[in-house]
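re: ur question from yesterday

yeah so i grabbed the chain u mentioned. its 262 aa long if i counted rite. heres the sequnce exactly as i have it in my notes:
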Amino acid sequence: MTADPRPTDVASVLAPLVLAIGRPSFPKLLLDGVRDAANVGHCMVFAFEGRTTRCPLGIGNIQIGPDLGAAYAEHFYAADPNHDTLLRQQSSPRPILLPRFSPRMYSNTYRKLFFEDGEIVDKSATAIWVADICFYLNFYRTKDQGQFTSAEAARLAELAPALAAIVARHCQEQDVPDPRTQIERLFATRECFMTLTQRERDVCRRILSGYSTEAIATDLGISLHSAFTYRKRAYEKLGISSQNELFAIALRLIARPHFGCP
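ran it thru and got these structure tokens back, copy pasting raw so excuse formatting
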């Protein structure tokens, strides 16, 4: 392939994105910017948070893109070698540029679903940790586009640090969860709650959702005595003795996501 001499106008790519953070126009502007810089066909962003993975942004020319995003978030993230790489770099204060794409990095099943069925022939990836969430950006080229040229790959690498930070900020702006979702996240990502058994978590989640002990027992299909027992065990593990203290822990963690459990 011949090198593409087109220069990167960093400001023309990044300025519209900064102005569009949190707005519905952001995904299209992101795709337009990286398409102009490196002829990117599809963009997909994943967020790793504790034991959960989600796909907060996906746009482009891959017809089955939404299905691929859902499959990755539900299961296949565990088969992505970049996932383990990123988890090992959680303490990194800087954006992370992932190694150049190679199909041999992936299992046969993964390659078949994501690269053959999706007709993906190349990708460039970067990521950034923001507190306990990793935002993982993927820029794809499809079969009809061919692989990135060395110049296009270099332009994406030049843009990657700022793009990672801007996309992460946009996803945070978009991600204003309702109280129930916030509670679910606490129990999936915070160590103090993750030490509880499933039943103890079930009881505590319902306490935080306003259920009485009687309502908890009915909702879970257990006896009132069992509901009291699970609550007592959970409180002992959390080092508390009352519902008010449980609410205090939850509110503190929601308000100060950068801090760990008490």
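noticed a couple things. The two ends are 56 Å apart (CA to CA). also The longest helix spans residues 150-174.
anyway ttyl
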